[in-house]
# Entry
Amino acid sequence: METSTPSWLWLTHWGARLVLLILVGLSLVSVGVILNRRTLLKAQGNSTPLHPAQEAIRAQNWAELKKIAESLAPSSVLQGYLLLLATRLTGAGTVTIDRSTRSYLTDKRSQLERHLTLLATVGSNAPFIGLFGTVLGIIQAFGELSSQQGGTGSVMAAISEALIATAVGLLVAIPAVIAFNSFQKRVRDILTPCEILRDEFVASLESRSGR
# Structure
């Protein structure tokens, strides 16, 4: 005679499916963040040689520096940074330059890195969520085995279904990790030239004032 299905077995059954729904939701959110960040970072334009801007700064040719800035992508961080140097900081001291440029770069970094922590969180935790769903599925499979007089084939099928949760967790995590690392590198590539030009700017002003 078949035994009745325990209530906890019903909970593991729907718990495993809830885990899959959570993973699907995380995947959709990750895709949305990836597309949003990709569009924003792409708008920064391609990498620009620093040599012309460095020469203009060393010569303290602010008009030329402004022309170089205007030739860049209109929404790029580097363009705004060069315009800041060319128009607002040409007569300022090194302390004012340091504070202004750091404030500018901090604000831009927060804009460029927005939501990237979500990708890192999904990438590091999605496999564990999938593993939890697999554990629930295996518990359900062995629970079904103990509540009936056979049917090992159905139990094996349930275990196979449970392993899908782990696979889905990995499929959600891997793109999120790849995108996070790629976007972090892109942010560094955007901000590093600004930091180099800040040092050039300060050095140029100090060398002129020391003469």
